[in-house]
């Protein structure tokens, strides 16, 4: 590829070429080394940040790749490997060997023993690449693992360790000397080497997999494991060991295309309608200010001592504040809130047997919005309308924020330059375009534009038929499953045998796509199908013009189009590409059809006749740039919103880890901080200046059991003295509680605190989703949605933390008997039945997606039960 003068890319490549020469100098030294000498040299490497280590590591890797798997990284692949080590994105065209390129920076960074990750787009590619490159890593003394869906984890091991050891001693190589420029010849020695360096997958635990030096897996699995690690009730159950260095394969797909669909771990709201109805009836038997007190300012309800006794009797439990009874307490409090705090035709209306929220600021109805934490169901039970059950979000994160946790992040893809600005702004990653090993000779023809889709598809079938008759392989790229099926039916009627791939069965499709370059092959594929798999030309195909790629329409992103075109013309092979468009295509219909319609009318274009000109292709690209800008703005806004949530998520997860990991002394110190926060909040709530509304303040402390606080002795004190006195009283009561609970106290307190934190965080996540919807509407009132979101969520987060502290204090003093084992068993059973959700990335536009969902042809969500 010709390089531009005076651009950043040229400047970087100049520096990298100098580094390549130094690697090659080191390679000359090691090229005559025995296998054992190479192994020992690899063991002596240590600091990956030292340039000298890079030169040695890459030189050794290059030789080992040749000896173990018969692949020899060429100079351009060394360039890519240097780019990846520096935490940049290497744009390398299809067929340039990205899988092999990654081995060098992975080995170099794995020297830290912190663990490095290679992220792929599907399970099949993770297994394939780990097995394929495995012999290189094992030879170099690294442990390699694969994490797959459904909790499956594997380690790559030698099939026969003794054969490998013999190969080392005898200095056997897969690629014997003298065969460098030929296809490997079958020989006894070569066969021995192939057997000696053969590897296989052995199943291991997830935690063991992450302890390996190099871990291959999908973006989904790394993200879900992180979320699950922050739901555990014991730190020993965590599987990941930090986020040091990762290389993302198909980085544009993961960090851009999938950036708008978060990973979500959710669980069903276990309670049925009968439970909500039962508590709605029970709530009517409780007397305000006698059994419970209402704080209208904070919209909370607290039970009094008398109310607690009544609840325990009515519900049939010994201790309402036992962690096992948390659900019953929440249901009762929600039922009381619904009855006394939420008023019909003020906070909500009932229409068509549905409870619809009223916006407190505008008075408008908010159909579709629901109160979280079971409150909406409690109101539905109160009003006697059908109760709709929901799932509960336990944890969520976007890929944007998950991958930003890595100390160093790199990526590789065939198409990234068009999105360079986004990679720079959102991830701080530069894109470096690596020159191809051999010159690109593919012919990219001008777009053909037709009036209607019907005319366009007829022209495609006619073109395919001509190519099929002469034996030239054809790959047809579509933007949807529906259009794949339509074209397939047309080709069938024309008598053209073909394969249809829809990115559903990765392993099978990778095998089919690999054969798409054979003589006479016709393959229809959605743009994502078989991604990451090379298409090699069959015998005699080069003479026919190579693989011919047809695009059935232009995508919103030029990058997706480039991915399709890039399937042809790999490694200097011949090839062709052409896009067939129509004025009815979504992109042209929305953004450019009127101008093109005028041109067609002016030129008196007949039905079935296309128009084509370089100017028209540029017009389409201008439209694509406009849409890319819109999509970038949306992703940027979502990331800005999620960055707020990300800081809060890290804070909550850090707090969980601190609690689960602390000893008794640290736990006591944390409890003291909670006491101070609890009293501080109460005093600030009921005081103006130095004046404390003692009656209201005293009433607010009725949530604590009798005997915990003696309030008569503090009436004459000033505010600061009251604060210190009450904190000391709480600390003394806490010591008594510790003695009462006994040896199990530390484990019990940790479990109690984490359960309260988790329950409130889940409720907060639901509330945040409602805020996201609401703030976007405020843009119509000339308010910045991001500022509004930050303002509201900061306040909500502070309120949640106050609520967590209050609940910890309340529950701590009310628990009289602990059945921790039963509580933990129930909590673990709950976590075992969670659903992992990631809205499957596809390239359907919104209108098509809605239509197909309505017709039942695609599912709305991709769910995996574990």
UniProtKB/TrEMBL annotation:
Keyword ATP-binding: yes
Known EC number: 7.4.2.8
Compartment list: Cell membrane; Cytoplasm; Membrane
Catalysed reactions listed for this entry: ATP + H2O + cellular proteinSide 1 = ADP + phosphate + cellular proteinSide 2
InterPro entries named among the record's database cross-references: Helicase_ATP-bd (IPR014001), Helicase_C-like (IPR001650), P-loop_NTPase (IPR027417), SecA (IPR000185), SecA_CS (IPR020937), SecA_DEAD (IPR011115), SecA_motor_DEAD (IPR014018), SecA_preprotein_X-link_dom (IPR011130)
GO BP term, pick one: protein import
Binding-site positions, ATP: 77, 95-99, 534
Main function: Part of the Sec protein translocase complex. Interacts with the SecYEG preprotein conducting channel. Has a central role in coupling the hydrolysis of ATP to the transfer of proteins into and across the cell membrane, serving as an ATP-driven molecular motor driving the stepwise translocation of polypeptide chains across the membrane.
Name of this protein: Protein translocase subunit SecA
Naturally occurring in which organism (per UniProt): Pseudothermotoga thermarum DSM 5069
Lineage: Bacteria, Thermotogati, Thermotogota, Thermotogae, Thermotogales
Gene that encodes the chain: secA
């Amino acid at each position: 590829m010709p390089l531009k003068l005076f651009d950043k890319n040229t400047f970087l490549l100049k520096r990298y070429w100098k580094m390549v020469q130094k690697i090659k100098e080191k390679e000359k030294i090691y090229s005559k080394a025995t296998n054992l000498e190479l192994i020992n040299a690899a063991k002596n490497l240590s600091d990956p940040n030292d340039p000298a280590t890079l030169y040695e590591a890459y030189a050794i890797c290059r030789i080992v790749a040749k000896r173990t798997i018969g692949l020899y990284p060429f100079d351009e692949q060394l360039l890519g490997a240097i780019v990846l080590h520096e935490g940049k994105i290497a744009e390398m065209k299809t067929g340039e060997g990205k899988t092999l390129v990654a081995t060098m920076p992975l080995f170099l960074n794995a020297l830290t023993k912190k663990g490095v990750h290679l992220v792929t787009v599907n399970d099949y590619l993770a297994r394939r690449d780990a097995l394929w490159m495995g012999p290189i890593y094992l030879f170099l003394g690294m442990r390699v693992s694969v994490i797959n869906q459904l909790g499956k984890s594997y380690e790559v091991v030698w099939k026969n360790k003794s054969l490998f050891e013999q190969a080392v001693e005898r200095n056997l190589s897969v690629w014997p000397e003298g065969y460098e420029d030929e296809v490997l010849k079958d020989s006894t020695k070569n066969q021995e080497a192939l057997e000696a360096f053969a590897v296989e997958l052995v199943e291991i635990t997830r935690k063991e997999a992450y302890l390996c030096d190099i871990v291959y897996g999908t973006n989904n699995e790394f993200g879900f494991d992180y979320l699950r690690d922050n739901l555990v009730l014991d730190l020993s159950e965590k599987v990941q060991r930090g986020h040091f260095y990762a290389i993302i394969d198909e980085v544009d797909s993961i960090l851009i295309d999938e950036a708008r669909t978060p990973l979500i771990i959710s669980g069903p709201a276990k309670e049925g309608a009968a439970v909500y109805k039962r508590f709605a009836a029970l709530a009517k038997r409780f007397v305000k200010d006698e059994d419970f007190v209402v704080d209208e300012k904070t919209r909370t309800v607290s039970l009094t001592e008398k109310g607690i006794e009544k609840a325990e009797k009515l519900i049939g439990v010994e201790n309402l504040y036992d962690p096992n009874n948390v659900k019953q307490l929440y249901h009762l409090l929600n039922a009381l809130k619904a009855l006394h705090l939420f008023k019909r035709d003020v906070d909500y209306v009932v229409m068509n047997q549905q409870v619809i929220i009223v916006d407190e600021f505008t008075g408008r109805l908010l159909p579709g919005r629901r109160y979280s934490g079971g409150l909406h169901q409690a109101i539905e039970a109160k009003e006697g309308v059908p109760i709709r059950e929901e799932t509960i979000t336990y944890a969520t994160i976007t890929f944007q924020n998950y991958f930003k946790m890595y100390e160093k992040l790199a990526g590789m893809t065939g198409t990234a330059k068009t999105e360079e600005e986004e990679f720079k702004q959102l991830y701080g990653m530069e894109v470096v375009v690596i020159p191809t090993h051999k010159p690109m000779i593919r012919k990219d023809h001008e777009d053909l534009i037709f009036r209607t889709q019907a005319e366009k598809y007829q022209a495609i079938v006619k073109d395919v038929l001509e190519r099929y008759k002469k034996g030239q392989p054809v790959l047809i790229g579509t933007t949807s499953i529906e259009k794949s099926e339509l074209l397939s039916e047309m080709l069938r009627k024309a008598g053209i045998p073909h394969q249809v791939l829809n990115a559903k069965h990765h392993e099978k499709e990778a095998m089919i796509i690999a054969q798409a370059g054979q003589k006479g092959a016709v393959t229809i594929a959605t743009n994502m199908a078989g991604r990451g798999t090379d298409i090699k030309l069959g015998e005699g195909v080069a003479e026919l013009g190579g693989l011919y790629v047809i695009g059935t329409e232009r995508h919103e992103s030029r990058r997706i189009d480039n991915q399709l075109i890039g399937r042809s013309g790999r490694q200097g092979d011949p090839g062709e590409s052409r896009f067939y468009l129509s004025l009815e295509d979504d992109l042209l219909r929305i953004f450019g059809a009127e101008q093109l319609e005028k041109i067609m009318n002016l030129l008196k274009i007949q039905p079935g006749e296309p128009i084509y000109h370089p100017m028209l292709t540029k017009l389409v690209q201008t439209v694509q740039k406009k849409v890319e800008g819109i999509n970038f703005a949306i992703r940027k806004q979502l990331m800005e919103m999620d960055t707020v949530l990300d800081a809060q998520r890290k804070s909550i997860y850090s707090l969980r880890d601190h609690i689960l990991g602390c000893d008794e002394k640290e736990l006591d110190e944390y409890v003291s901080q909670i006491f101070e926060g609890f009293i501080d909040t109460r005093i600030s709530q009921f005081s103006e200046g130095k004046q404390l509304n003692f009656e209201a303040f005293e009433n607010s402390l009725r949530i604590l059991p009798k005997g915990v606080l003696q309030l008569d002795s503090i009436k004459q004190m000033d505010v600061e003295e009251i604060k210190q006195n009450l904190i000391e009283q709480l600390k003394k009561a806490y010591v008594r509680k510790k003695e009462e609970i006994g040896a199990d106290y530390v484990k019990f307190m940790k479990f109690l605190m984490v359960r309260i934190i988790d329950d409130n965080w889940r409720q907060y996540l639901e509330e945040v989703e409602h805020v996201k919807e609401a703030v976007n509407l405020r843009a119509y009132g000339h308010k910045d949605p991001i500022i509004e979101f930050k303002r509201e969520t900061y306040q909500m987060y502070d309120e949640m933390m106050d609520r967590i502290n209050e609940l910890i204090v309340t529950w701590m003093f009310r628990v009289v008997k602990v059945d921790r084992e039963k509580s933990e068993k129930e909590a673990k059973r709950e976590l075992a039945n969670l659903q992992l959700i990631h809205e499957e990335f596809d390239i359907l536009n919104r209108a098509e997606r809605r239509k197909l969902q309505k017709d039942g042809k695609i599912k709305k969500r991709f769910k995996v039960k574990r």
